[in-house]
Amino acid sequence: MVGFLRGGVPMQEVAKKAVEAGEYVIQRDKVQIKAPITNPNKVLCIGNNYRDHCVEQGVPVPTEPLVFSKFPSTIIGPGDDIIYPDVSDALDWEVELVVVIGKEEIGRASCRERV
C-alpha cells in the first residue's frame, strides 16, 4: 500500500482502469480487510475533538487541540479484536480518521498542499 500511495496520481489512474475493466473482482466474503498501513513512523492523534465526546466524558471542550501519540502497534484492521489488557479496568474505543502525509521534507508554506 505504501508503494501505491507513493505512486501518486499515475498509480491512481492504473487502479481506476483496473476497477473500470471489471476483470479483477474478488467477492468480499473471500477476503479479509486489513489495516492498509501498519508501520508508520509516527501516529499523532487529536483528542476531545468533538463536543459530544467531551460532554460524555465530563471534560471541558478544549480551546486548542489535545495532541497525543500512539504506538504503531496499536493499528488494527476493521473487525480485528481489540486487546483488553489485564491491567485495565475500563476500555474505551472510538473510530479514528487517519490522514497520511506522503511528502517528506516540505516547507511550512506548502504543508497544506500535502494533506
Radius of gyration: 19 Å
Terminal CA distance reads 17 Å
How are helices and strands ordered from N to C?
Answer: HHEHE
How much strand content do the residues show?
Answer: 5-15%
Number of distinct beta strands:
2
Approximate shape: extended
Chain-averaged pLDDT: 83
- Number of H/I helices: 3
Biggest β-sheet, characterized?
2 strands, antiparallel
Strand order of the largest sheet: 1-2
- Return residue spans where pLDDT drops below 50 for at least 5 consecutive residues: none
The helicity comes to 10-25%
**Which class of secondary structure composition applies to the elements?**
alpha+beta
Question: How would you sum up this structure, described in words?
Answer:
There is one protein chain. With 115 residues, the protein is an alpha+beta fold. Helices cover 23% and strands 9% of the residues. It is built from three helices and two strands, in the order H-H-E-H-E. It has a two-stranded antiparallel ribbon with strand order 1-2. The longest helix is centred in the N-terminal third of the chain and has 14 residues, at 8-21.
Compact summary:
The chain is of the alpha+beta class and 115 residues long. The protein is built from three helices and two strands; from the N terminus they run ααβαβ.
Helices and strands, with pairings:
Elements: H1 2-6, H2 8-21, E1 43-47, H3 51-57, E2 66-70
Antiparallel strand pairs: 1-2
